[in-house]
């Protein structure tokens, strides 16, 4: 009972500590701009882990902490023909699977499914990936890899379609914005400096990327 109480109380305390975004037209516009900024930063950088490191620090999500990975060893997903095609491997080539949550402090910023080719990594890299919760991007950083985005999708639209044409923006009368659990999805693959693919990922970014106090909008004079 005590353990259960601590889990529930801890989760509630964490939720209460998360800053709320007021449900106003300006805040909805600001939320969209923030999501588009994160999307742009992910698209223009090779490492999602390092991008989230900077995001976490910039927005004060966890003072002085780096993003870490928490592995989900209970989940397994098959290696499809499409994945093998992206990785350019035949049916006999082993492909490993790794599911992690990228966490900053106590905040889960993304949940990622990663399929990779162990034979294209070093022995030390494979040991680190198999025996620790180290983020994939940090482990394979010596490969000087390049990230190639296949798809980027906003899972939440704070503003209605054609809002820029004067369509009314609905609000909840001063309450907080209802932000869904996941707000952004990226699909990408990684290649070595020689252009050889070795990993493909599906990343789902959570509402926790917005877990900071929004600043009031102040137009320039």
From TrEMBL:
InterPro entries in UniProt: Chorismate_lyase_/UTRA_dom_sf
Record Gene3D superfamilies: Chorismate lyase-like
Alphabetical list of SUPFAM superfamilies matching this protein: Chorismate lyase-like
Protein's UniProt name: Chorismate lyase
Organism: Rhizobium lemnae
């Amino acid at each position: 009972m005590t353990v259960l109480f601590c889990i529930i109380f801890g989760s509630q305390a964490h939720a209460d500590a998360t800053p709320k975004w007021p449900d106003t037209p300006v805040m909805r516009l600001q939320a969209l701009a923030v999501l588009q900024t994160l999307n742009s930063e992910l698209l223009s950088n090779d490492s999602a882990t390092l991008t989230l490191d900077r995001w976490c620090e910039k927005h004060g999500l966890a003072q002085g902490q780096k993003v870490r990975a928490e592995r989900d060893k209970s989940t397994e997903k098959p290696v499809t023909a499409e994945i093998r095609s992206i990785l350019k491997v035949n049916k006999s080539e082993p492909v490993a699977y790794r599911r992690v949550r990228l966490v900053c402090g106590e905040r889960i910023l993304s949940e990622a499914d990663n399929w990779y080719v162990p034979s294209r990594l070093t022995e030390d890299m494979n040991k680190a990936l198999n025996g620790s919760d180290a983020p994939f991007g940090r482990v394979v950083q010596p490969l000087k890899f390049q990230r190639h985005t296949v798809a980027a999708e906003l899972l939440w639209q704070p503003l209605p379609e054609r809002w820029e044409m004067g369509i009314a923006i609905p609000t909840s009368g001063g309450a907080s914005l209802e932000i869904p659990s996941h707000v952004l999805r990226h699909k990408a693959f990684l290649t070595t400096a020689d252009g050889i693919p070795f990993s493909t990922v599906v990343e789902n970014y959570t509402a926790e990327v917005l877990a900071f106090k929004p600043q009031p909008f102040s137009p320039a004079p």
